[in-house]
Amino acid sequence: MAAVPEIHVAVGVIFRQGKVLIARRPEHVHQGGLLEFPGGKVEEGETVQQALVREIREETGLRIAPESLVPVIEVRHDYGDKRVFLDVWQTSSAEGEPEGREGQEIRWLDVRELTDVDFPVANRPIIRALRLPRQYAITGTVENEDAFVRRLQQSAECGGPELTLFRAPELSVEAYTRLAHRALEVCQATDAMLMLHGYPSLIEHLPQARGVHLPWREARQFATRPIADNYLLAVSCHNEGEIAHAVQLQADFITLGPVNPTPSHPGAHGMGWRRFRALVAASTVPVYALGGLSLTDIDEARGAGAQGIAGISFWWSDV
Ligand SMILES: Nc1nc2c([nH]c(=O)n2[C@@H]2O[C@H](COP(=O)(O)OP(=O)(O)OP(=O)(O)O)[C@@H](O)[C@H]2O)c(=O)[nH]1
Ligand SMILES: [Mg+2]
């Protein structure tokens, strides 16, 4: 049987005053009745930006400048009857008042109001990507518990990271759990999200955490998603096979690296941005670039299709 050709779809996430523009797909079309972001098929000879400007104009009447578009994520999905490549871009500078020009219902929704079941399945990673920040901050070595908590507090006071991974393989389970409780208190005060590092059952002892990040050696032991859907599941990946496994576990996001050689993993070669970009293209979940990166690498990472960067050195310095 001949392979079903992949359809290149330009998908536009239009932000205005913190909300995004959502439409309802007419009942009779593919994935009908579900919510969607405006957009449509990229036509022959068009760039994705041109397609977005055209589709958004046709479907909503809004005018967008192609240079205001910023990449969000690329999602490849096989619906069985159709294979789509959703090329997702965002803008916050659409002009005009939107109307459902094709008779579709439209409305502005807060990103937190977007729920998986209301959208086509292929949209899940888009919803994750819109909720996740550009930086995934990983904590450094714990030499002293009080100093560690002070360090976290200081960072929180100056508008610290939205998403932090509390990683401390040097601690015993008891010490980790004890310190995680303190770290969670700091994060809760500023509404920041804290991910636990290790194994799934940690979340049972620390249910206020946002989720669990599994190192690869842990992730490989599971065949299905090991934590509930209301938590975030993250997996550390280094190659195609690991990414495919993380997708199978329904990870909400992954880290991928090392992009550059890093002192925390001596001897490991950096994969470089070219290979990173190729691997990201094969991932259907948001990817954070990891390994020897600084804040100035965010644009490079995003240009390679990543959600952003993950790491210790760009935000953590020992006190
Ligand atoms: N616009 C849009 N399409 C999506 C989303 N998610 C998703 O799976 N798709 C799929 O992408 C494919 C193409 O989108 P479309 O139906 O909007 O295409 P279009 O505007 O060119 O419509 P047409 O069929 O009238 O030419 C559809 O199979 C649709 O199910 C989404 O969030 N927005
Ligand atoms: Mg459309």
Automatic annotation (TrEMBL):
Does Iron appear among the keywords?
A: no
Instruction: Specify the protein name.
Output: 8-oxo-dGTP diphosphatase
Is Cytoplasm included in the keywords of this UniProt record?
Answer: no
Binding-site positions, Mg(2+): G39, E59
Q: Which family does it belong to?
A: Belongs to the Nudix hydrolase family.
Q: Which Pfam families does the UniProt record give?
A: NUDIX_4 (PF14815), TMP-TENI (PF02581)
List GO molecular-function terms, semicolon-separated.
8-oxo-7,8-dihydrodeoxyguanosine triphosphate pyrophosphatase activity; 8-oxo-7,8-dihydroguanosine triphosphate pyrophosphatase activity; 8-oxo-dGDP phosphatase activity; 8-oxo-GDP phosphatase activity; metal ion binding
NCBIfam families linked to this entry: mutt, PRK08999.1
Gene3D superfamilies the UniProt entry points to: Aldolase class I, Nucleoside Triphosphate Pyrophosphohydrolase
Q: What cofactor(s) does the depicted protein rely on? A: Mg(2+)
Could you tell me which PROSITE patterns the record lists for this protein? NUDIX (PS51462), NUDIX_BOX (PS00893)
* Keyword annotations from UniProtKB, A to Z: DNA damage, DNA repair, DNA replication, Hydrolase, Magnesium, Metal-binding, Mutator protein
What species is given as this protein's source?
Answer: Marinobacter panjinensis
Residues the record lists as binding 8-oxo-dGTP = R25, H30, E36, F37, P38, G39, N123
Annotated coiled-coil positions are none
Its top-level enzyme class, in one word, is: hydrolase
Catalyses which reaction(s): 8-oxo-dGTP + H2O = 8-oxo-dGMP + diphosphate + H(+); 8-oxo-GTP + H2O = 8-oxo-GMP + diphosphate + H(+)
A Gene Ontology biological process in which this protein takes part is: DNA repair
Name all Nudix hydrolase domain ranges. 5-134
Q: What is its EC number?
A: 3.6.1.55
